[in-house]
Amino acid sequence: MTPFKVYILGCGSALPTLRHNPSSQIVELRDKQFMVDCGEGTQLQLRRSKISFTRIGHVFISHLHGDHCFGLIGMISTFGMLGRTAPLHIHAHGDLEPLLRQQLDFFCQGLEFEVVMHPIDPTLNKVIYEDKSLTVTTIPLEHRVPCCGFLFKEKELLPHIRRDMIDMYGIPVSQINNIKNGIDWTSPDGEVIPASRLTTPADEARSYAYCSDTVFRPEIVPMLEGVHTIYHECTYADEDSSRARKHFHSTASEAAQIARDAKARKLILGHFSARYNNEETMLKQACEIFPSTTLASEGRVIEL
Description:
7-stranded mixed beta sheet; alpha/beta; single chain; 23% helix; 9 helices
């Protein structure tokens, strides 16, 4: 099966600590790497994770709070110093473009690559990126500023060819793609061999949801139905639910309810407040509702 990985570069919240970096992740599928959020210090985390800067083609910014985008201009500047020539595509709320253009004009004159802005509407549940393997869809969230999450969904895969059957019937290699697409094979003597006999079922398509800063929002559950893995912000423990409501964040139990109701397989908690020395209490609270829960940590690689 083709690797589908998520690299956690930062899973802390707004106040910097020595334990956690601000939000950033890399989603990797079929040799393409997509960055989700770009908090301060993301470049160093890329180095520590041994992730090549050159393979990042798209950056998705969930919202315009500094702990999710302050690292962007520095990373773009570094790309320029490394001689990048491929365009860098940035998907974010439209308010980012004039701010970033001003920074680019001041700090990054003479870039040899284009920074392409793709404004998104965080209030919509809409496909904003698509290639032959993957779609990326926005997940409307509710925070102090316009905010959305992102659903990375692998496209349906083709079935596997049964090599023994192909050899037995002497089917030409040129016909394999047709058979994978469900076209039956007709032998030279007129015998029709159903494609289903020549293949085994395809691997299950995988999906990953990144739910950034938000209050408890059960309205997103239908958008996440059956998702393989959810990363959901968990800024506060349950006993601090009043703080969560005040600052438009979620608690451990609320994140777990989203995963449970969406029938997800796994939940990753992240975006931890600096007020906690560890997150074990939050993990315990979430596991009481959704047992298949783990904690994000810098350097962790999640394989779907």
